[in-house]
Amino acid sequence: MAKILIVDDEVGIRELLSEILRDEGYDILLAENAGAARAMRNAGRPDLVLLDIWMPDTDGITLLKEWAANGQLNMPVVMMSGHGTIDTAVEATRIGAIDYLEKPIALQKLLAAVKRGLQRPQAPGAPAPLTLAAFTRSVPLRELRRRVEQIANSSRVLLLRVGTGSLAELVARSVQSGSPAWLDLSAISVPLDINQLQATQGGVLFVGELARLSRAQQKNLAFAVERLDRYDLRVVVATDRNAEGLLAEGWEEALVSRLFEVSLAPPSIADVRDDLPELASQILMHLAEGGEVPLRRFSTAALNQLRNLPWPGGYAELRAAVKSLALGTLEEEIGAADVRRLLPPDAAAGSVGVSLDQPLREAREAFERLYFEHHLRLEGGNMTRLAEKTGLERTHLYRKLKQLGLQAGRRHEEG
Question: What CATH code would you report for 270-348?
Fold first, then answer.
């Protein structure tokens, strides 16, 4: 028999609905708030959800948006409210709810809505790509999402000023406003044609690092930028170079000027390290929903291990690591020991790789270089935090990095 999750903060409503539906032969799961609903939905895999709109911690519309954003809206959801409006019902339907019931809920309307929902065929295909909308508990990621949406409403071009630990792809996916169409221009080496732009109409063109584009790929980018309005496209590009650097490498001035019209410096993984457990958990859940990995969960110790890794490859590296862990772990829970396998043997053993068979001055310089390289990666190039971490005054820190031949990170100087 079908499994139904009832989400309502009023105990009387939960008891009444569960009694009615159990009498009809359904298996019932109960949740008193959005937090419990998340856990029940992930563990119980309900066939249908009855979701109250007005709840104390997170309202039902927000939870519905969250499920839609991270690819979890693959079960029918019927919204319930005693204070609903037509606008609320329309919004819920637009997000993905299949029905809307007003309280007090008549018995026949309840049973009819449940029957229609369970008879509705599941949407085929993979879940929608993971976007910033999935991370509702992270203040920095919520603020980043609002900035990205605000820019996307006014500009078809967004340049992301990024460095180590980039979240560029996650940001770019969040620009998609309805169409799932996505084209990575850095993966195309032949001349771009009109047919490819037509196939991506309404979607997003992405470049993970401008500096890696060949001359031919730069021409593809220029070709696409000239036709954004015609095909309702947005382009999101990322780079750690400035405009002068690209011009010095031979880029066309007109294209560089267009790309640098609107830019944003999103946080790196190091900047949102405290939110990394949520990032990793949502990625794992999204991979499982898409059938790419078996159902798994992280232990608290495993999440702490992940949080303490530097992730210089950013979002792509983290996603690949989560997928590898889920596929390589035999138990349902991914533990700290599984995560430690991600570390190279020398790092796991605590070795710093400095030869002791050399004069003290050279050994000290080699150690300092490794030390500062490690903390530059860990802090995502943030010089304010690096100064705090090393206990050096900023001027002395810059001088030391220059002496060691290391590039001083100047992004996110405000800390």
Answer: 1.10.8.60
